[in-house]
Specification:
By secondary structure, the chain is an alpha/beta fold. It has a single domain, classed as Vaccinia Virus protein VP39 (Rossmann fold, 3-Layer(aba) Sandwich), CATH 3.40.50.150. The protein is 27% helix and 25% strand. The protein has a nine-stranded mixed beta sheet with strand order 1-2-15-14-3-4-8-7-13. Strands 5-6 form a two-stranded antiparallel sheet. α7 packs parallel to α8. The longest helix has 18 residues, at 79-96. It is globular and about 70 Å long. It binds S-adenosylmethionine (SAM).
């Protein structure tokens, strides 16, 4: 079994220098997908002109952002700096969103640092009067971190805001309902929750325990990336808060999970990252999906042809256009 693990390219300068020559975008450039019109930009999320160029006058019905969280796993900076930077990319996002649209922001809370930046970010968001808070999702990780002296840290937070009155489509999990009860009178008859229910499965509320964290045995795994969100989590947000052919944006693209989910769910996606290596990874992930039907590299990596001389032996499902 091959095991071509690419180290975190944000931390390993040697690996980074090896892959940079294979990256087709330079800072400030935008790639447009000739098939579905997706765009991948090597841009700064907080740069109004750059984001305007990415949008090209179009408006999105949904934004899904997963910025670096200002916690040790990423780069830490003074909280005031992180918040004033966040204010800038929320402003570019608000401009890019349609009058009735949804915004999701994944964010962490550092339990060793007064839970920053989550509460600071929530307060900052109140300055954007056009964006109204709607929900606060917690997703449970399978792997956690911590000591025997504290609760295991297993949560990921996602804030949900809306602009105007966007549609929302209820989503169901794969978990069957097992509890009965909660009688309610409907047309003079006592009905129990199973009778009234639209599904035999539990509705996805704002606590998710059914999403598998990405790890190296999964097909969607993208080696070289360090902060990949599970496709299932992004698909759930897209299905709840957008319709087919609508535009979804993500300004912190990284492994391109939002791009892949949008492609699979027939939405258009404009995505960016300020690092040319992640931009290349996103484009390659989309091309791989179309060519081989695979959502990631499992224990290979996006540059394995150039770095390890791997031959593309898998059977293409489609020829490259
Ligand atoms: C937490 S990761 C996003 C993970 C992504 N949701 C996924 O599933 O792969 C954050 C990304 O934001 C990018 N980034 C950091 N600062 C940025 C900026 N100012 N503009 C655009 N991207 C930025 C980083 O390079 C990194 O790839």
């Amino acid at each position: 079994m091959k095991n071509h693990v690419l180290p975190r390219i944000d931390e390993d300068e040697e690996a980074r220098q090896k892959v940079l020559p294979f990256c087709r975008l330079k800072i400030g450039e935008i790639w447009t997908d000739p098939v579905r019109g997706h765009k991948v930009g090597c841009l700064d999320a907080a740069g109004p002109m750059q984001i305007q160029e990415l949008m090209g006058g179009e408006k999105a019905s949904l934004a899904i952002h997963d910025p670096p969280y200002n916690v040790v796993a990423f780069d830490t900076r003074p909280i005031e700096e992180f918040i004033s930077w966040s204010k800038r990319w929320i402003a570019t996002t608000s401009d890019a969103l349609d009058s009735d649209s949804s915004l999701y922001v994944w964010l962490g809370a550092d339990q060793n640092e007064g839970f920053q930046p989550l509460p600071d970010f929530m307060l900052m968001m109140r300055d954007f009067q056009e964006l109204t808070s709607r929900s606060f999702i917690t997703m449970r990780n399978q792997r956690g971190y911590g000591t025997q002296n504290n609760w295991m840290a297993v949560r990921q937070e996602c804030l949900f805001y809306v602009k105007g009155k966007p549609d929302f489509t209820v989503q169901y999990t794969d978990i069957p309902k097992i509890l009965r009860g909660y009688y309610k009178e409907v047309n003079g008859k006592n009905t129990e929750n199973m009778e009234r229910s639209k599904s035999n499965n539990i509705r996805a509320g704002n606590v998710w325990v059914d999403v598998q964290q990405v790890f190296y045995r999964m097909e969607e795994n993208v080696n070289g990336c360090y902060a990949q969100k599970p496709l299932k989590s992004i698909e759930r947000l897209i299905l709840a808060s957008s319709k087919e052919t609508e535009l979804v944006i993500d300004f912190f693209g990284h492994s391109g999970t939002t791009l892949i989910a949008a492609e699979q769910l027939n939405r258009k996606c404009f995505i960016c990252d300020n690092d040319p290596v992640y931009c290349e990874i996103m484009i390659r992930r989309l091309e791989r999906l179309r060519r081989f039907g695979k959502t990631g590299w499992q224990n290979g990596n996006p540059f394995e042809v150039e770095l390890h001389g791997v031959k593309e032996t898998e059977q293409p499902i489609l020829e490259l256009w």
